[in-house]
Specification:
This protein is of the alpha/beta class and 270 residues long. The protein contains eight helices and twelve strands. The strands form two sheets. The chain has a seven-stranded parallel sheet, with helices on both faces. A five-stranded mixed sheet has the order 8-9-7-10-11. The model has no long low-confidence stretch (mean pLDDT 93).
């Protein structure tokens, strides 16, 4: 039985995951983190009578209250990245493995988290997206980048999403840039137009963030060669259910390595 503490357990995706954890025979939800509901019983908030843990204001408080946990899951909204990073580092220091689902952390943040994980001999699995279609898109895009030199990323989300690009977009840019640096027809410093019109450059890859009503989350990579083009696109619907199975897999697998891994497919048989 793995003991799990979940940050963001009363949010849109976190609540679905909390119910998913509570339904498993090999996982036990023993606590949660959330500023708005700190001090309240988690089972009462989610209408889960079998869950007895409380909501705490920080990871350190939640872990102390639960007398430790095996896995800490950071699924909070990216309103304050400093708090998210602090919670992750506190969980590692307390001896927990960590699954990161929050977006907005930078490559420098992840470098610090990786060091902390290695120093404590713990595993961290950071997933920009737990949906299997998004995970497969990332793998297929890496395959395509080996053969097609020109590509860019479009990141879609609702207009109220504060972070741009999303964690999925950041992760995809990191991975594609590691495969190869894409070719660009006109160098960015020679573009005739306003600054930023060609998007942001992340790990050498151009990323364009679209934020308009009607989208939930989506990611697209466009690959181009002479007289041919390839579009790889994932789109999410309004339900949080597609993310639960992937998150449960991450919780079960995160203890199998030391240090940071980015991408759910790193622990899948693909």
């Amino acid at each position: 039985m793995q003991r799990v503490i979940l940050s963001g357990a009363t949010g849109w995706a976190g609540a679905a995951l909390a119910r998913g954890i509570a339904a498993q025979d090999d996982l036990q939800l023993v606590g949660a983190v959330g500023h708005r509901n700190a001090g309240r019983p988690l089972g009462e908030l989610l209408n889960l009578p079998t869950v007895t843990g409380m909501v705490s204001g920080s990871a350190a408080e939640a872990i102390a209250l639960a007398k430790g946990c095996d896995v800490y899951v950071e699924y909070a909204k990216p309103g304050s990245i400093g708090i998210v990073k602090t919670n992750i580092l506190a969980a590692l220091a307390a001896g927990a493995h960590v699954v990161v689902a929050s977006s907005g952390l930078s490559d420098a943040d992840y470098a610090a988290i990786d060091k902390a994980a290695r120093d404590t001999d713990r595993g961290v699995l950071a997933c920009g997206n737990f949906a299997l279609t998004a995970v497969l898109l990332q793998r297929f895009a890496e395959m395509a980048a080996r053969y097609i030199p020109n590509f860019e990323i479009i990141d879609y989300a609702k207009d109220s999403k504060p972070d741009a690009p999303s964690g999925t977009g950041r992760e995809l840019a990191l991975r594609l840039g590691a495969v190869r640096q894409p070719a660009i027809g006109v160098p960015l410093d020679q573009v005739n137009g306003p600054d930023g019109v060609r998007g942001a450059t992340l790990n050498g890859v151009q990323v364009h963030a679209v934020r308009v009503p009607g989208f939930v989350l989506g990611i697209e990579t466009i690959f181009g060669m002479k007289d041919q083009r390839l579009h790889l696109r994932h789109e999410a619907g309004a339900s949080a259910e597609p993310y639960v199975d992937g998150a449960l897999l991450a919780i079960r697998k995160v203890g199998g390595h030391t240090g940071l891994l980015r991408g759910l497919d790193k622990v899948m048989d693909l």
